[in-house]
Amino acid sequence: MNITLNAEAMTYIMVDIESDGPIPGDYSMISFGAVVVDELLNKTFYGQLRPISDKFIPEALTVSGHTRQETLTFPEAKQVMTDFSHWIKENTTDRAIFISDNNGFDWMFICWYFHHFLGNNPFGFSSQNLGSLYKGLEKDTFKNFKHLRKTTHTHHPVDDAKGNAEALLTMKKNMGLKIKF
User: Fold this and answer.
1) Is residue 51 a contact partner of residue 66, using CB atoms and an 8 Å limit?
2) pLDDT (tens digit, 9 = 90+) per residue, 114-132?
3) What sequence ranges are listed for the domain Exonuclease (predicted)?
4) What is the pTM of this model?
5) Average pLDDT estimate for 86-115
6) Residue 155: active-site member
7) Partners of 45 in the β-ladder
8) By residue range, what is the domain housing residue 81?
9) Is residue 4 part of a domain?
């Protein structure tokens, strides 16, 4: 019996977030960046969000490069998530796939914010982890993909998402990863 699977068309969107604490709800997503993974990497989104909680961890916030006072001037989270949802729809003609360097962290915030503020998540209920993908390609759980980035990791989420997208493109081009963009 021959079974032919038609690969569903997918748009991979690399995402990176910065927060002021370890979990959404109690703490806040401060900013995030996204890039459509294709050869150009020129479709990007950047969102800054006003804190949704009075709680924050100063050391975590410092990573974002923003002060608490600055973050209090950022746009409301609901508007930013609405804008991001529209951007995803405008840049996706098929299924949007969420992928990130640390999807356990990044996905947790994006998924929670979409459901909390908009009642749904345009990515659905699944995410992909770039680090695990690389480990699988290398067949070694101790390997790290970060040397494949071209864009410097600055903790500006668009830079970081772009560098991670560059790594994914390198996995496709140089390591034989079967993936459609």
Assistant:
1) no
2) 999 999 999 999 999 999 9
3) 11-177
4) 0.94
5) 96
6) yes
7) 34
8) 10-175
9) no
